Amino acid sequence: MGYNFRPPGVLERLFQVKTADTGEKTELKRCLTLFPLMVQGLAHMLGAGIFVITPSIIQSVAGPATCISYLLSGLAAGLSVICYSDLASRYSCSGSAYVYTYFSLGECAAAIIGFFLIGELIIQSPMLTLGLADNIDLFIFNGTVHAWEGEYFPAWFLNTELIAIGTMVCFTVINLYGIKIVAYINIAIAGVSVLTLFTFCGVALAKGSVENLYKVVNPEDGRTGFAPFGFSGILSGAGIAFFAFVGLEAVVTLGEEAVNPKRDLPRATIGSFLMVLVLYVLTAFSIAFFVPWYELSGNTGLIGSLRNRGFKAAEYILTVGLIFTVFACGLCNLTTVVRVVYSVAEDGLVFSFLSVVNKRTQVPMWNVLVCGILGIGTSIVYDFDTLSHMISGGTLMVFMLTAVAVMILSYDTSDRELPVTKSEKTRLIPLPQGRFNISTSRKRHFIICQTVFFLSAILLSCLLTYFTQTTLIICMECVLFLMILTSLSLIRLNIPLKEGEDSLSFKSPFKPFVQGFSILINLLLLLHLKPVALQQLSIYAAVGLVVYLCYGIFFSKITNRKQNQFLIQLTAECEDTDKLVPDTADGLPKLLSFEKSL
Fold first, then answer.
1. 3-state secondary structure of 539
2. Backbone phi and psi for residue 205, each to the nearest 5 degrees, phi listed first
């Protein structure tokens, strides 16, 4: 007796993909329109780095050239924005890059990238609260809180800041009341944030000096010029500056709470990104114009520089804006990580109680509490400087795999379903005839071209990062770049787009070149991060793999659905053969009775 269906094996489980949920059913409340979604991204990205990370990059990484670092990171992030918008127009579910990886690369890769995303966001909230605590203590308490903590807490407890812990508790409580409360707070604070930024930039440009951009000399090490740390420092600053654009996740993770997600998510993502990029570049330039770069002091540099120069009014305005803006960013961040964990738990890859939604508030209550506790614990273990260099590695990896997902979902010829609204009016793009035509299958050709592209991109990034630029190395880099262009061109010419691509509300232009260069830039920035960030990535990957192999592989909803289908078919076939098999057949009655009992 043969079966048309069998339960999935271990290898099949690792690479099984999620199919599109065209019903768009969710237990969460759909109440967010375009404006609240855009404000969610704006509040998250503004508070994420404009007051906290930017002075740190100027002081110790890139100098006055930090504005160039933001432009470079904005270029890479802009390519990622296109990829996110393309995917958001396809799927209206929470989870962001995790879900997109699940649709394209399979379950094991999705579990790992899910922990990349969760780890990055878990680190971000306590980092923001630590920066906020330093500024509150400096401005309101004149440093007495830190002095009191150092006196009364034991040595192993020195990383604990009571203000940071209290702020994390506030984030948790507010998120328990629902997404509408979070949206109202973000809308109220967004106006304060933008007004604060323009006030500071106006004061800085009016009172600063152009000599601060290129003439000042650091008395400690003699560094000077617009880029005192060189081009390598600009690239390193761009990698750290990517922290500013992690707020892109805040928009696309709200797919199950948006009223019209396939239309509004791409618009909100692009709109909030463009506004934030302009504000970041303007603010970084204004800071470097206003004060010598070596005089800044990490996460309190802005307020400290204003205080030292006697600008009391601007100091008060900036501090109030900083407190409210960073508070809104941390609040958005906790909202985002809760939605990612909810999506992973909903798929059965982590503990299912994290996806249980409270019927009254329509919020995953236990999920919020667990994420809040993890954020408090992180603020106890790490200090601000350590967290600031750990934050961007996971973001770069997430952005890179998002671009990979667009390439696979646009060109893959397998049976993965693409939800479309006008599929009957769309036809596949035919293969071009002539010398570019190939005899091998489309899928094999696609895999070969992708393999060549990734190997070339990795080698090119390593040569640009770790080797001295001699004539031989430059020639090798040119050859690798040509190989990258050739492999992407062969994909575009020989592999047709999937049916229904033209009916999407937003589609990425210049496929697959936008995705290819996004991967290359993100990979290059990733290699320029400090070793602690790369070590953190390996920890995320190890934790995600262990959790998946010990729990998710057994309780995945896709696996359970396939197993149930097998049992139903097995039971039906056993019932059909029951009349033909004698009851005395050794072992068979037990199997039949067991299956019938199911």
1. helix
2. -70, -25
Residue 142 has pLDDT above 80, yes or no: no
Question: Tokens representing 246?
Answer: 């992690």
Q: For residue 422, count CB atoms less than 10 angstroms from its CB and return exposed for 0-12, middle for 13-18, buried for 19 or more.
A: exposed
Tell me how many degrees the CA angle 255-115-530 measures, rounded to the nearest 5. Answer: 115
* Residue that has been written with the tokens 């604060």 in this structure: 196
DSSP reduced 3-state for 439: coil
Residues 498-507, buried b or exposed e (16+ Cβ, 10 A)? bebbebbbbb
Q: How confident is the model at residue 473 (pLDDT cuts 50, 70, 90)?
A: confident
22-75 pLDDT per residue, tens: 345 666 777 778 888 888 888 878 765 676 678 878 888 888 899 999 998 888
Q: Which two tokens stand for residue 524?
A: 């290059």
Single out the residue of 300, 225, 306, 393 nearest to residue 54, CA to CA.
300
CATH class of 36-410+530-554: mainly alpha
* Token pair recorded at residue 211: 């000599």
- The residue among 507, 503, 506, 505 whose CA lies nearest residue 423 is 503
What three-state secondary structure class fits 118?
Answer: helix
Task: Give the separation between CA 49 and CA 51, rounded to whole angstroms.
Answer: 6
Q: Look at phi and psi of residue 437 and say left if phi exceeds 0, alpha if psi is from -120 to 50, else beta.
A: beta
Q: Looking at 185-194, 424-433, 538-547, which range is the least confident one? A: 424-433
The DSSP letter of residue 511 is T
Grade residue 579 by pLDDT with cuts at 50, 70 and 90. Answer: very low
Contact 296, 57 (CB under 8 A): no
Alpha carbons 170 and 68: distance in angstroms, whole number? 36
The number of beta carbons lying within 10 Å of the beta carbon of residue 133 is 25
Domain edges within the chain? 36-410+530-554, 432-495, 560-597
pTM of the model: 0.80
Which residue in the block uniquely carries the two structure tokens 């750290």? 240
List beta partners, residue 224: 217
Angle at 197 between CA 192 and CA 201, to 5 degrees: 150
**Burial label, 75 (beta-carbon count in 10 A; 0-12, 13-18, 19+):** middle
Q: What is the DSSP letter of 293?
A: G
Q: What distance in Å separates the CA atoms of residue 31 and residue 182, rounded to the nearest whole number?
A: 12
Looking at residues 473-492, what average pLDDT do you find? Answer: 90
Phi, psi (degrees; rounded to nearest 5) at 224: -155, 175
Amino acid at 446: F
